[in-house]
């Protein structure tokens, strides 16, 4: 399919691990997407770099101020068209990040994230409701 025939969603996520735990957020669900655990991050705005997008998203969803590091992984998924929407490619990037300030607590109002939590690494893979991007992050840690 030619790139003019589908929409693209660009997203950046942060991999934050400390003291044997991974920082995850609870996505409260949306059309066709059930509630689940995910990495802090999300859609990059039109005029943002990946790094600026992940810094903004992490703050909104977790309350932490971060510095974005290197791109650690890329992943994509394709969503078929529906009667009201063109097909979409979701292109996702996982970036290293370092916490430089802030306090744990979601700052966005009326958004898609209810809360953030540090989850022990040994428990992350067993979470029954987790987004695929979490498994991408776990794969990075297994290397």
From TrEMBL:
What the entry lists under InterPro entries is as follows: Nudix_hydrolase, NUDIX_hydrolase-like_dom_sf, NUDIX_hydrolase_CS, NUDIX_hydrolase_dom
Q: Keywords assigned by UniProt?
A: Hydrolase
Q: Would the keyword Hydrolase turn up in this protein's UniProt record?
A: yes
Q: Which residues form the Nudix hydrolase domain?
A: 7-142
Cofactor(s) needed, names only, are: Mg(2+)
Q: Where is the signal peptide?
A: none
Entry's Gene Ontology molecular function annotations = hydrolase activity
Similarity-based family: Belongs to the Nudix hydrolase family.
Write down the PANTHER family for this protein, in alphabetical order: GDP-MANNOSE MANNOSYL HYDROLASE, MUTT_NUDIX FAMILY PROTEIN
The protein here is known as: NUDIX hydrolase
Q: What is the lineage of its organism?
A: Bacteria, Bacillati, Actinomycetota, Actinomycetes, Micrococcales
